């Protein structure tokens, strides 16, 4: 049975959750991070809706199976290139990008999803006071993202290091690429910004 339709993120879902905070995880893989955030929301009686965006079919099908097996009703999937979703008028309260594909070789840097246009697009879909969170273990990507943010005339505040959103993210950070980074002893770089 094709289970995907009932978990697809679209305008209907967005409208149904208008009183909820919407958390978008870009390149969510098989959804480990939003699953643990969803559990956190239930434990803390929060009104959140989670959207995982992913293009890798095997990961999408694992995520669907898991949502269905666990009877979750607050996780939805956008199974296409995130740029299509960002061409629509959705607004998000939190956007996470965890370990975006680094494209290590210099000549492949142009394939990195986070570029000037993408950063501007993310901020235009971030609600007032919303958070943009990017985590990577690739130093050159991290430095490049910081440069883009500073040169694109974006209005934001850095999130204070004691803010609960930081511990909330790191306490639930359980993704495949985070585990790989830890296993390899890589340094983790993070960017926590709040839209103003
Ligand atoms: C390095 S993996 C990280 C996966 C997961 N966030 C983690 O931390 O384990 C990057 C993911 O981004 C997905 N991805 C790449 N380009 C994308 C795009 N344009 N839209 C949505 N997902 C994308 C890839 O399929 C891949 O699963």
From TrEMBL:
<dbReference type="Pfam" id="PF02390">
    <property type="entry name" value="Methyltransf_4"/>
</dbReference>
<keyword id="KW-0949">S-adenosyl-L-methionine</keyword>
<dbReference type="GO" id="GO:0008176">
    <property type="term" value="F:tRNA (guanine(46)-N7)-methyltransferase activity"/>
</dbReference>
<dbReference type="InterPro" id="IPR029063">
    <property type="entry name" value="SAM-dependent_MTases_sf"/>
</dbReference>
<keyword id="KW-0489">Methyltransferase</keyword>
<dbReference type="InterPro" id="IPR003358">
    <property type="entry name" value="tRNA_(Gua-N-7)_MeTrfase_Trmb"/>
</dbReference>
<dbReference type="GO" id="GO:0043527">
    <property type="term" value="C:tRNA methyltransferase complex"/>
</dbReference>
<comment type="function">
    <text>Catalyzes the formation of N(7)-methylguanine at position 46 (m7G46) in tRNA.</text>
</comment>
<keyword id="KW-0819">tRNA processing</keyword>
<protein>
    <recommendedName>
        <fullName>tRNA (guanine(46)-N(7))-methyltransferase</fullName>
        <ecNumber>2.1.1.33</ecNumber>
    </recommendedName>
</protein>
<keyword id="KW-0808">Transferase</keyword>
């Amino acid at each position: 049975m094709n289970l995907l339709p009932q978990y697809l993120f679209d305008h209907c879902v967005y409208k149904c959750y208008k009183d909820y905070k919407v958390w978008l995880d870009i390149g969510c893989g098989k959804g480990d991070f939003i699953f643990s955030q969803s559990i956190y929301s239930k434990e803390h009686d929060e009104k959140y809706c989670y959207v995982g965006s992913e293009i890798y079919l095997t990961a999408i099908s694992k995520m669907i199976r898991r949502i269905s097996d666990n009877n979750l009703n607050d996780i939805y999937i956008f199974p296409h290139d995130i740029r299509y979703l960002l061409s629509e008028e959705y607004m998000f309260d939190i956007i996470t990008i965890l370990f975006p594909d680094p494209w290590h070789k210099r000549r492949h840097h142009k394939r990195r999803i986070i570029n000037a246009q993408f950063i501007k697009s993310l901020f235009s879909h971030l609600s007032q006071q919303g958070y943009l969170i990017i985590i990577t273990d690739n130093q050159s990507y991290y430095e490049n993202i910081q440069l883009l943010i500073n040169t694109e005339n974006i209005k934001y505040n850095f999130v204070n290091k004691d803010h609960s959103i930081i511990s909330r993210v790191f306490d639930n950070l359980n993704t495949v690429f985070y585990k790989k980074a830890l296993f390899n002893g890589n340094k983790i770089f993070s960017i926590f910004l709040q839209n103003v």
